[in-house]
Amino acid sequence: MSLKWAINGVLDDIYFYAQGIPRTLFTWKPDNQLTILNFFENNVKKYPNEIAFIFKDESITWQEADNKISQYGAFLQSQGIAKGDCFALLMDNCPDFLMLLLAAHRVGAIAALINTTVTGEGLKHVVTIVDAKAAVLGASHLEKFETSMPEAELQALKLFLVKDSRDVPSGYTDINEASKNSGDVKPYPLKIKDIGMYIYTSGTTGLPKAALITNGRAVKTSFAGQFLGFRAKQKDILYLTLPLYHATGLLWSWAGCLRAGSTTVIKEKFSASEFWPDVRKYKATMFGYVGELCRYLMNVMPNEEDQNHQLRVISGNGLRPDIWEKFQTRFKIPKIRELYGATEGVGALVNTHGRPGMVGHYMRGSLVIKCDQESGEPIRNDEGFCESVEVGETGLFISQLSKLATFEGYLDKQASNKKIMSDVMAEGDRWFNSGDLLTRHENNWLSFADRVGDTYRWKSENVSTMEVAAIVNKYAEVLDTNVYGVEVKSAEGKAGMALMNVTDNFNLDVFSEHVEKNLNAFQLPYFLRIAEVMKTTGTFKHQKEDLKKQGFDPEMIEDKLFFYQKGKYVELDKNLYERIQSGEERV
After folding, report:
1. Do 392 and 375 contact (CB within 8 A), yes or no?
2. What are the DSSP calls for 162-192, one per residue?
3. How far is residue 173 CA from its own chain's centroid?
């Protein structure tokens, strides 16, 4: 078995370099004119009357979409949006989102892709930091937008709306109506080195940061999505339910398949109950995923239609080992191609051979180094340099920076600088710090372990939140789990806590037996929080920072709380909370 995976790794390298080297040498030069709009325009020439998008049973051809893009572009120019200007795009998934993004490319503008779940101070922040001159909103987001933005800044913005689940109110500009007679667009060819869009970090810690996505980064991500992820053909149909404001949905999935001229079925928002009926209805052959999406699909009751589909490949990131093989077997998925990477990151990995639980293997310029697994601080030897982890060890994943492997960073230069490490393996070298912990396996295969900061230390042991969550999720009545460490005043380190969604048949006593049997004593979630709704980002990532601050204080939390006491979970009230904090009740 190990020989098989070793050979596969070599074949991966050969294929990757055979596809990538010619493009690197001749196509991806900084001053070349190339964006994802070029791939779209190639499809217009080749397949003008073929279907580009399907949305709510309405089809749009490549030619029809191209005409709409030109209308949008001309309208934006008529409103003073010129080369290098930014406008905010706050919309649910729909063809208009993609056509407005491509219109920005056509006129040389920059679209800031706003997370639809952001509101209040966060929404104000993401609009103002990019100095947006205008905003294009889905009508359902208007009220949230206006209440989040200060009056002065709202007055300075040109506001345009698109009908979605709500009609455009009177008194506001419907961009679809306004752009119909906007004249001819004046294209502005963009170079690979130019900024193509802003995509924001998920905001799992602090306010979101605007990552600079150059046209080169977008093109290279689409290249990887096509050649390493989907290997799409023109006849393929992509079912897209991931948010388009995020790189996995937009660049890896849609833009990757755009290169082949594939049809994209766009879903406004993910729905577990509608997912498989849609896949069958539209005869989808591919879909992009994030791991929690797959977990939600597993939580739907099995039925005889589970394997009735035409899928040939799915690709995405975050499919955890505890459900990988169960998911693939239950739904009979022929190929799963797992990606590891970050929107702004350097050194993505792809598991093109479907080895369960792996994110890929070492590529040139990537490394996993020894570190403090709780803080992520690199461990340096007597000479002041870092060391690679051995097989079976977990460490910090880093990628070497070079002329070919560049880090564009964020608008916030200070935040960008924090991601760069120097003098790592030799004097003067520079590396991108991913902030992720990966585990090295035989033949240099790698698996995701945890985010730095998610790992916590308890009873002198490092505890992986992902590892604990995987065991907790194996209990049949647990639907989803978010594990994190919380401070206990009377103890050193952080004790484990699990926020869980459970079924009506959840039994605390049986669950207690499950965790005691399958987890080491230092791994036990000593505190449970049973919630109706899991707090996640728009891309299904668990949010932990607020949960850590709330800890296990019953006066701050409305959800039911439980404490692991003498082999069983008991309800946690104010009296028990105070006894735990004082040390009267030992954890």
Report:
1. no
2. E-SSSPPPTTSEEHHHHTTT-------PPPT
3. 32
- Domains annotated for the chain, with CATH where assigned, are 2-340 (3.40.50.12780), 362-451 (2.30.38.10), 458-582 (3.30.300.30)
pLDDT, tens only, 69-97: 999 999 999 999 999 999 999 999 999 99
Q: Is there a contact between 162 and 177 (Cβ–Cβ < 8 Å)?
A: no
Amino acid making up residue 329: T
Distance (Å) of CA 247 to CA 286, 305, 553: 17, 31, 37
Q: How far apart are CA 120 and CA 305, in angstroms?
A: 42
Amino acid, single-letter form, for residue 140:
S
Q: What is the pTM of this model?
A: 0.84
Q: In sequence order, what are the residues at sequence separation of 6 or more whose Cβ sits closer than 8 angstroms to the Cβ of residue 235?
A: 262
CA dist 27 → 38, 141, 408 (Å): 13, 40, 19
Which of 155-190 are b and which e, b meaning 16 or more Cβ less than 10 Å from the residue's Cβ?
A: eebebbbbbbeeebeeeebbbbebbeebeebeebeb
Distance CA 375, CA 456 (A): 9
533-556: average pLDDT: 81
pLDDT digits (tens, 9 = 90+) for 31-70: 999 999 999 999 999 999 999 999 999 999 999 999 999 9
What integer pLDDT is reported at residue 1 of this predicted model? 46
